[in-house]
Design goal:
Distance between the termini: 51 Å
Largest sheet: 4 strands, mixed
Strand content: 25-35%
Radius of gyration: 20 Å
Structural class: alpha+beta
Number of helices: 5
Length: 167
């Protein structure tokens, strides 16, 4: 009786878990950006940033985030610097806010290293005009130039990241 009511359901659950989340999930095709962006993020109120513009550049390595503060100060960061800052700073720290905001636009695809897995948030832009311009120019170019690549998904969780950007 104990075997029928406790052990079989437990074994079924474990088996189902291995089936859904286990090893050997096969391959996954993803879209990898081949072009980069220069994203300008503007401080619209103290510690609140919005994307003012996104312009395409030929190489991912040439990607930059330009942070314009209300004080008039202006800083420029590479993609690698932006990734590092978001990894070592909390999502709510004043240091990382401009980068998390940039990650809500098309720059987020570069930070993730792949297209998809995130959607562009129109509320992250200073206005609808900035959002539409970014979508029709840089976003369209970034999406159309992405290349397909296949990577192996194995192990628990299928190799997918649980890190997200936004705020």
């Amino acid at each position: 009786m104990l075997c029928k009511h406790l052990i079989f359901p437990a074994l079924f659950s474990v088996g189902l878990g291995f089936f859904l989340f286990g090893c050997g999930l096969g391959d996954e095709t993803i879209q990898v950006p081949t072009e980069g962006l220069i994203t300008t993020v503007t401080e619209v109120s103290p510690d609140d940033y919005k994307i003012a513009s996104e312009e395409s550049v030929d190489l991912v390595e040439d990607s930059r985030i330009i942070v314009e503060k209300m004080s008039g100060a202006r800083d420029t960061f590479t993609l690698e610097q932006a990734k590092l800052i978001t990894q070592v700073s909390s999502d709510t720290s004043a240091v990382s806010r401009p980068f998390h905001r940039a990650g809500m636009g098309y720059f987020g695809f570069l930070m993730l290293g792949r297209m998809g897995g995130h959607s562009v948030n129109s509320g992250a832009y200073v206005n609808n005009g900035a959002y539409n311009k970014a979508s029709n120019t840089a976003g369209s170019r970034l999406t159309n130039s992405a290349r397909s690549t296949t990577r192996s998904r194995s192990g628990f969780g299928g190799g997918k990241s649980t890190r997200s950007f936004g705020g």
